[in-house]
Amino acid sequence: MLSSLRDRVRAALLRFPALLATLGLLDRKKGTEAFDLAVPVMVTGGLRTLLRVADFLMVGMYAGGAAIAALEFGFQYYFVPFGLALALTSGTISVVSRFRGADEPAEANFAIKQSLWIALLLAVPITLFTHFYSEALVGVLTNDPRTITLGGDYLRVVMYSVGFRFWSMIAARALAGSGDTRTPMYVRLLTLPTNVGLNAALIFGLGPFPELGVVGAAWGTVAATTLAGVVFGWALLSGRYAVRLPVRGKQWDTDVARELVRVSLPLAGTRLSRTFGRFPFLFVLGVLGTEVVAAYAIGRRVMLLALMPAWGYSTAASTLVGQSIGAGDDEEADEYGWQTLRLALVTQLLIGGLIAVFARPLAAAFGSESVDLTVTFIRVFGLGVAGFAVARTMRGGLRGAGDTRWPLYGGLLGTYGVRLPIAVLALPASYAVTLFAGPLAATLGLAPVVVPLPGMDLGLLAVFAAIVGDFYARALVNLVRYHSDAWKRVARESGVGASADADAD
């Protein structure tokens, strides 16, 4: 019954790439493969985004705009280990897909274990640091006492989930690297609704659960993330899937670790540059007002729903490009990247347009105190969806080949060459900021420093231009790099897969 329903749904969905092929926009075979891989990732990402949207919705209902701002500030620090996990697991999917393409399953399996050990080395100190300094970290971004308290409480608790988050993402990306994107979707279909239910129960005190308010959202996330980690652990230890986690045998291989780190480091730089770039950007929004931060937070979460297709197509591009490279077929790999991009653009623009049209009822659902401003933020993000689709899909193709430096360059350009220099123009003229003035700086022995900023009092106009410009700067860099074909040489020189063996011969 369920199998039959699943097959009917899949057949209905596959009509979309078939239609694009009929219109001459797509190669049917390659487009269907990419779409089939991407849809489960879209569903998983969409559920994850809906969870964050639900968190903001429920917290806003419980405690208003200040609580939404607190969640946004606290969540930015959660993006630090989340970004590291994305980077590390990008190395995982790259290495696993190339080993699978080269028909070396034992090496693919060991790459999963190696990724896990690296993850533990990162997760434990991060969790300990934020446990002790959560309020001080939030205090760097705002001087509102209530926001600092709420954000610090949320951050301290949600960081307890970091280790399980790392493992869940390693397992999901390893399965994707083997061509299985459905199993991670099924796990998320179990754990993410559980997360939403637990968050609601713990925020509002439903049934036998205590009323914990904002921190309840954090405890719900910890419980659900732990559940996901346990389920993924069972899956990869069971031996029922294309890849597995080998417990016995060697625990560390420097060559594999080096390749994982080589692929991951630029992506870590990309993610962290973007994450750390959000802090001064949020500071600018905070100067413009708490209602601006809340409107931005809601608008961004809503628009992330439109951006989910690009996440799916990025993973599809990584898998298909990586497996083709591993099998020694560079031209096939190249074509998979371009066909996936075509799919991504069409899908992204259709969904982004729909969300922009329905921006007002979506904004109103959050009980926002500034509905008009929230609607504007949603539509500004909508202007950037094409840029996001190009940047993300091309980055996925480059990642599959193990070429991750240029996405880092694009990220640095977008954040520090476009977003922040334009955003700072929103500040009042002659505005200055005092650095190292909080309790964390005092603990570290840092003296306060006053830094003047080149504000031009452009307000929200500069903020909107910064958001859109960032998207398209990243897109340009990744598109040019993929078009150059230099990533094929990087793949051959990596020492992983059949293309590397052919180059050595």
From TrEMBL:
Q: Where in the cell is it found?
A: Cell membrane
Q: Any one cellular component term from GO for this entry?
A: plasma membrane
Where are the membrane-spanning stretches? Answer: 50-71, 77-96, 116-134, 154-175, 187-206, 212-237, 279-298, 343-363, 375-394, 406-425, 431-451, 458-477
Protein topology in the membrane: Multi-pass membrane protein
Q: What InterPro entries has UniProt attached to this entry? A: MATE_fam (IPR002528), MATE_MdtK (IPR050222), MdtK-like (IPR048279)
Give the keywords, sorted.
Antiport, Cell membrane, Ion transport, Membrane, Transmembrane, Transmembrane helix, Transport
Task: Fetch the PANTHER family from UniProt.
Answer: FMN_FAD EXPORTER YEEO-RELATED (PTHR43298:SF2), MULTIDRUG RESISTANCE PROTEIN NORM-RELATED (PTHR43298)
- Database matches in NCBIfam families: matE (TIGR00797)
Q: From the Swiss-Prot or TrEMBL record, give the protein name.
A: Multidrug-efflux transporter
Starting at the broadest rank, the lineage of the source organism is:
Archaea, Methanobacteriati, Methanobacteriota, Stenosarchaea group, Halobacteria
